[in-house]
């Protein structure tokens, strides 16, 4: 299995685990993942900038975070409880390798949003086009995805629901700690997600 294919399989497994943590019967709930995609696209456009009547500079970091969120929803649309993760990953790898790019990032983003609105699907080729036009590669996606997913699990495991979770440690918010942990690790490691969690655990204040 190629490195990129393995990354996609890992992300699919993690997405199913997170969805199950939210609702153990999530397959039968009919959640509107496609709607989450186009709403995120609209939010992302504000971060990128689209108003011609004022000066705007793209907030690249925030755009990348929004793309990572969209990928969560895109994976959720592809998981059906029947098809193997490897088969889904192979299809995604193929689509991501044939990126569809319009004239600029905004127009490519609109192709992604249009597929979600009109067809209720995740257009992985347009998603890859957005990645390319913002300067984002599969490693950036994987790093961002695993980090966000793992932090969500970490929060749940440390009292997020009952309010006992501590979000600021040593003058930094948890997502800032997350960035430092992720940057210190090798994304190619087979236990990358586990190492991210352990890195957070090591930094989290003991009571």
Automatic annotation (TrEMBL):
It comes from Pseudoalteromonas translucida (strain TAC 125). InterPro entries: dUTPase/dCTP_pyrophosphatase (IPR014871). This is dUTP diphosphatase.
């Amino acid at each position: 299995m190629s490195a990129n294919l393995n990354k996609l399989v890992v992300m699919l497994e993690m997405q199913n685990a997170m969805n199950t943590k939210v609702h153990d019967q999530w397959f039968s709930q009919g959640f509107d993942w496609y709607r989450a995609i186009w709403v995120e696209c609209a939010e992302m456009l504000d971060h990128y900038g689209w108003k011609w009547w004022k000066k705007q500079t793209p907030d690249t970091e925030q755009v990348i975070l929004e793309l990572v969120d969209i990928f969560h929803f895109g994976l959720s649309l592809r998981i059906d409880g029947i098809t193997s993760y490897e088969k889904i990953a192979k299809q995604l790898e193929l689509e991501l390798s044939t990126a569809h790019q319009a004239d600029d990032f905004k127009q490519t983003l609109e192709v992604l949003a249009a597929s979600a609105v009109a067809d209720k699907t995740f257009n992985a080729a347009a998603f890859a086009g957005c990645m390319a036009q913002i300067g984002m590669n599969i490693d950036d996606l994987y790093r961002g995805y695993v980090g966000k997913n793992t932090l969500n699990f970490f929060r749940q495991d440390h009292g997020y629901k009952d309010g006992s979770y501590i979000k600021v440690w040593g003058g930094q918010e948890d997502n800032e700690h997350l960035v430092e942990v992720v940057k210190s690790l090798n994304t190619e490691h087979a236990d990358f997600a586990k190492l991210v969690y352990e890195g957070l655990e090591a930094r989290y204040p003991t009571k």
